[in-house]
Design the sequence.
């Protein structure tokens, strides 16, 4: 790959800027505990102030060091060494052995040059690598403190405005707009079929919302599922009952339920392996989406899910751990594990691997910091895009086919509120580039793409807001793995593994519209994602239930009663009060110490978008295919209906990304 204009843009958008303060005031406050990172930075700064006093002159020439906690936790902090000369930053060295390869490491590579060039440690976070970015700035601030300086004591040099680059025009076979999971799957597929591909990405690095996906990828009938013992009888029965009782008037759901019932009867007569079927996956997805989904798109998603796990494996990404997730009758979410056998966040795992695949291909060119704003149409066919480059120059890409993979619009809070006024004031978990620009381009007068379900916007029930007001998603997997939700009264209040819309609604009805996710040390030990939450300062901790209750600010007696009661519910596998049917086989939440994360619902996923068919062709307002225009991932609508199941976004982006790539290739011929 010829890398073009990658680099940390001085204008990279900080995640926080895309967010508003939570309307759920009680929840926007940080747990009493200071973040681990802040503590670390403060400690280093305090210790070094004394050293500074001894050294004498503030800002004297020399090299100063600071540390802060990033993704690697306290045992593997980010270290920054700043060399000052004549009151200016002359050199910056950053080490972060625990930061995520291909994500945090991008900030480690990019920040020294910017800090030196602008003579400041106050650089904007790279969207997608915010935790590492923040840790670097904290460590750099601590290093300056060692020199007796505050960040504002340095005379910052505004980056010299780069001379505007020339307008340019390139030719290719396929132009892919957006470098999230869907865009990369499409680009890799088309490139492997021998086509030349150009990717246009508006941000300084790819990843979009995909890199933030923590859960996993839903797939049915995989070899990894068969490694599990089947214990989800109640889950399957519950789904079949729901189909009968709530969706008797939905032909697609009724037909699927009849097929699944047959498969289920056969399995029960002679159980072999782990029970799941493509049809049960379809049924779960349809019920999860309240029957509003496009059944053909759902079928294509589910039929191709298992093959997608294999495709990812062929491209270097393995998802061997299978877990339970909200709205799935059985264990179906496929997750990566690290060298210690702990499950890890799927997006942070997949995105660098897909990026590597992109970079390894000579026939893919990537243009970062370049924002597409128009689809070029000729004789009713899509033949390229016009984009704005980093310096405001025009980049025209003439192509034989266009794939839109620009993601959703969950970071455009005005647009969110326009479609659903009830969501005013909510925080968002979305990446900065999720602005709905793909929808705008495709619905322009000369393209006339149709849209579906734009008002279907998912709020995720477990979003935590840090001290700076930044929202962070806490994966649904934490509940599938055994965590429970308790309210400010210290009590459970709902089936934790129900669908996102229902859990969110239940949470909003609690005091302050918040809840606490409670987990134990055993869960922490099994997941680097969960230890990451603690290291990032999102969780409070207690050696006993009472101690944890105090840290949470909930009544200790009630909380202890809840936890003791939960251990019994878990042992009996019967939740008479709230009807939870999925119980982790390992975690009964009795292993001290205990942890809790305060959460409230936040804007998470936009289910609606461009209307596509099962070949990822974009459909216009007359119901006809727009020749040469394909779309995949969150920019499209119809797959998820009124509510997306956890694990279906990653399945969607890879399945439909590949289909879009294949279809573009077939179209070109
Ligand atoms: P998905 O994988 O579902 O496509 P993501 O959010 O992961 O969704 O990826 C979408 C990507 O598209 C993001 O990296 C985002 O920055 C990028 N993007 C959005 N709008 C544009 C645009 N107008 N031009 C170029 N890239 C864009």
Sequence:
């Amino acid at each position: 790959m010829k890398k073009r204009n990658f680099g940390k843009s001085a204008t990279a958008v900080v995640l926080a800027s895309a967010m508003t303060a939570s309307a759920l005031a009680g929840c926007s406050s940080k747990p009493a505990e200071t973040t681990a990172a802040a503590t670390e930075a403060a400690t280093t700064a305090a210790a070094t102030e004394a050293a500074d006093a001894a050294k004498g002159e503030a800002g004297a020439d020399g090299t100063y060091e600071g540390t802060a906690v990033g993704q690697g936790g306290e045992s593997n902090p980010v270290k920054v060494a700043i060399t000052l000369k004549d009151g200016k930053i002359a050199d910056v060295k950053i080490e972060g052995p625990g930061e995520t390869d291909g994500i945090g490491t991008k900030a480690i590579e990019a920040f020294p040059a910017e800090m030196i060039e602008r003579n400041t440690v106050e650089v904007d976070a790279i969207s997608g690598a915010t935790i590492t970015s923040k840790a670097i700035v904290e460590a750099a601030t601590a290093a300056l403190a060692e020199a007796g300086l505050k960040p504002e004591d340095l005379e910052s040099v505004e980056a010299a405005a780069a001379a505007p680059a020339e307008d340019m025009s390139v030719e290719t076979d396929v132009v892919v707009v957006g470098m999230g999971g869907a865009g990369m799957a499409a680009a890799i597929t088309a490139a492997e079929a021998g086509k030349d591909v150009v990717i246009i990405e508006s941000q300084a690095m790819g990843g979009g919302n995909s890199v933030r996906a923590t859960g996993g990828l839903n797939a049915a009938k995989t070899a990894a599922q068969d490694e599990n013992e089947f214990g989800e009888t109640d889950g399957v029965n519950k789904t079949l009952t729901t189909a009968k009782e709530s969706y008797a008037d939905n032909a697609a759901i009724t037909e699927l339920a009849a097929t699944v019932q047959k498969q289920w009867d056969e399995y029960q007569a002679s159980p072999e392996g782990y029970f799941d079927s493509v049809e049960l996956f379809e049924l779960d997805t349809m019920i999860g989406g309240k029957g509003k989904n496009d059944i053909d798109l759902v079928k294509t998603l589910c039929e191709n899910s298992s093959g997608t796990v294999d495709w990812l494996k062929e491209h270097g990404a393995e998802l061997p751990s299978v877990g339970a997730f909200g709205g799935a009758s059985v264990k179906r979410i496929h997750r990566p594990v690290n060298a210690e056998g702990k499950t890890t966040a799927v997006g942070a795992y997949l995105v660098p691997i897909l990026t590597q695949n992109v970079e390894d291909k000579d026939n893919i060119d990537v243009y970062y910091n370049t924002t597409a704003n128009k689809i070029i149409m000729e004789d009713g066919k899509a033949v390229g895009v016009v984009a704005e480059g980093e310096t405001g120059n025009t980049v025209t890409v003439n192509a034989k086919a266009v794939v839109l993979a620009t993601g959703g619009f969950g970071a455009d809070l005005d647009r969110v509120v326009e479609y659903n006024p009830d969501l005013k004031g909510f925080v968002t978990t979305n990446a900065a580039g999720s602005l709905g620009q793909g929808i705008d381009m495709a619905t322009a007068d000369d393209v006339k793409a149709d849209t579906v379900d734009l008002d279907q916007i998912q709020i995720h029930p477990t979003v935590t807001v840090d001290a700076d007001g930044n929202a962070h998603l806490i994966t649904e997997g934490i509940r599938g793995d055994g965590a429970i939700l308790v309210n400010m009264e210290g009590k459970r209040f709902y089936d934790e593994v129900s669908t996102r819309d229902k859990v969110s609604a239940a949470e909003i009805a609690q005091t302050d519209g918040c809840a606490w996710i409670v987990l134990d040390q055993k869960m922490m030990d099994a997941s680097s994602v969960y230890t990451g939450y603690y290291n990032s300062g999102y969780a409070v901790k207690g050696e006993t239930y009472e101690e944890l209750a105090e840290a949470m600010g909930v009544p200790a007696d009630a909380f202890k009663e809840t936890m003791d009661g939960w251990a019994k519910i878990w042992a009996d596998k019967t939740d008479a009060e709230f009807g939870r049917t999925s119980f982790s086989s390992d975690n009964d939440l009795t292993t001290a110490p205990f942890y809790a994360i305060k959460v409230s619902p936040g804007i998470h996923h936009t289910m609606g978008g461009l209307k596509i068919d099962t070949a990822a062709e974009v459909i216009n307002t007359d119901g006809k295919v727009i020749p040469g225009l394909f779309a995949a991932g969150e920019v499209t609508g119809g797959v998820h209906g009124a509510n997306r199941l956890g694990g279906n976004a990653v399945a969607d982006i890879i399945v439909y990304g590949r289909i879009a790539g294949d279809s573009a290739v077939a179209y070109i011929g």
